[in-house]
Amino acid sequence: MGNNINGDLIHKVLIPNPKPQEVYKMPDKTIVCKDCNKEFVFTEGEQEFYKEKGFQNEPLRCPECRKARKQERRSNSRDFRH
After folding, report:
1. Which residues partner with 39 through β-bridges?
2. In this prediction, what percent of the chain has a pLDDT beyond 70?
3. Which Pfam families match (predicted)?
4. What DSSP assignment string belongs to 9-77?
5. 3 state SS of 80
6. What is the pLDDT of residue 69?
């Protein structure tokens, strides 16, 4: 159960962490949509998703306005194809 380094016996000892690591929780945030001015909640799960994806900024639009904006961009891009 040990390693022999330069003739000395070294034992590996596992010491349990006396305090479990605290997990940092991001509280939900209330944000005002820049398009419709309604409040929406930027949940802890959404914040974690943004962090994992490397997004630097919080959303500026509520989910409904984001969806509408995405649809508008899609329809505009179709117009340019013809």
Report:
1. 32
2. 66
3. zf_Tbcl (PF13451)
4. EEE------SSPPPPP-PPPEEEE-TTT--EEEE-HHHHHHHHHHT--S--SS-HHHHHHHHHHHHHHH
5. helix
6. 96
